[in-house]
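Researcher: We're teaching a course module on how sequence relates to structure. For the next exercise, students receive a sequence and then see the predicted structure as tokens, so they can try to spot secondary structure elements on their own. Here is the exercise chain.
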Amino acid sequence: MLIVICLIALIYPFNLNSQKDSASVTNYRNNFVLFNDFGFNTAPFNIESTVKNQTITSKFRNNIHDFYGIGCNFKWFSFRLNIQLPGSVKPSKYYGHSKYFHLGFDFTYKQMFFDVDLYRYKGFALMDAYKLNSNLDLKHPNDIFSELTTNSFSINSWYFHKKNFSMAALRGKTAVFNKKAITWYLKGTINSFGVINSPSILPSYLFDPLNSKTSANSIHAFDIGVVPGIAFENCKNNWHYNVLAGLGVVIQEKGYHTELNARYFIGLAPRFDIRFMGGYNTPSWFFMLHTDFDNKSIDFVSMKYTQTYLNIRLVGGYRFGVKK
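Model: And here is the predicted structure for the students to work with:
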């Protein structure tokens, strides 16, 4: 509850009740909406480190799994069940097996939309490791780390300045825009994230005795900040598409652990907010493409960790009780 209050405190002063116009929106909140979706999530990350006076970028990739979801919306109630489909998209010979867990929910409070997410990915492959490790070759080019795990917990909120402009209308399930609209917005964000592995994140052939961070078994950060951006919606003949784009800065507490010590720092970090949604939306049914892009980073002297969370879904649904 304290975290939600912090986000409201960050954003609410900008709500100056100066909205002279409003977005034209049809609301289906009182209709029972049944939907299903199909897509995938992925979370590749890179570690850029200095080893023997050379900068090396280690690229870690998880194996992608498809998922199927089914859910419903009615008034204040929202439910979605997500099922990971069997099998992997990429060959396990090169990428190993990855395990994925996601728990999330969202809600609206007045002019603000809140989204809470917990992600966990386990199992990554270090790409083209054969170039540095003589035990690997072109037939087995990647070094697989089945226990390497990344975690991310985030609480985000969006305040849209224009009246009636909402995340529900952008998503197109329980509301839909009637005409073109544009507004500025503020995204409040709180994040706790990082990567962990035993005995170390990077393999021993990437250790540098002069750079203790290369032998770290944990890299983590906690940050809080505000990201300003622009939201644009366009629609014509039931076709809709919208874009959210923002760039801001967060205050970040960061650190790393090795077997011998632990170090902590405070600094600033950039944050992006990029989303695209579009598709065909009628009063009775809809079929939409939803994408969102979340980039997280931790920057140390002689080492930088960056991770991208990408979510792509095809969403189709039907609204019951809509008058034709």
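Model: If you want an answer key for the exercise: Confidence is low (pLDDT under 50) at residues 1-5, 11-19. The CA atoms of residues 5 and 65 lie 36 Å apart.
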